Amino acid sequence: MALVNDWSARDLQAWEYRPLGPFLAKSFATSMAAWVTPFEAILDRRVTAPAQEPAPLPYLHEEPWALDLDLEIELNGSVVARTNARHLYWSAASSSRT
């Protein structure tokens, strides 16, 4: 497991979307955590996930489980956001399909 964030520039996306769709807004930036953790090392952190609201389309439905892992975003030495992976709309279940 590794944390990856696709930083979409929503202000650019709204501007460039017409008529051709998002281009540069989706290539704005991507960051990746400094650590890679074997999935087996965090399986004991599995918890029941909250219901997805709004519900995803049927072909995207997954068995609801999440990982109880604290997440923190730091920018230039300052923490700008904290949450827990159990609150993410798309869980690790959608990636692993286990």
Can you walk me through this structure?
This protein is α+β, with helices and mostly antiparallel strands. It is built from 2 helices and 6 strands. The strands form 3 sheets. It has a two-stranded antiparallel sheet with strand order 1-2. The chain has a two-stranded antiparallel ribbon with strand order 3-4. Strand 5 and strand 6 form a beta hairpin. The longest helix has 11 residues. The radius of gyration is 16 Å and the shape is globular. The protein starts with a strand and ends with a helix. The model has no long low-confidence stretch (mean pLDDT 81).
Helices and strands, in N-to-C order?
A: EHEEEEEH
Structural class: alpha+beta
Measure the end-to-end span: 14 Å
Average the pLDDT over all residues and give the rounded result: 81
Cα shape: globular
Structural topology:
Blueprint: E1 4-7, H1 10-20, E2 29-32, E3 46-48, E4 65-67, E5 70-75, E6 78-84, H2 92-96
Antiparallel strand pairs: 1-2, 3-4, 5-6
In a nutshell, what does this entry contain?
This protein has 98 residues and is of the alpha+beta class.
List keywords for this structure.
16% helix, two-stranded antiparallel ribbon, alpha+beta, single chain
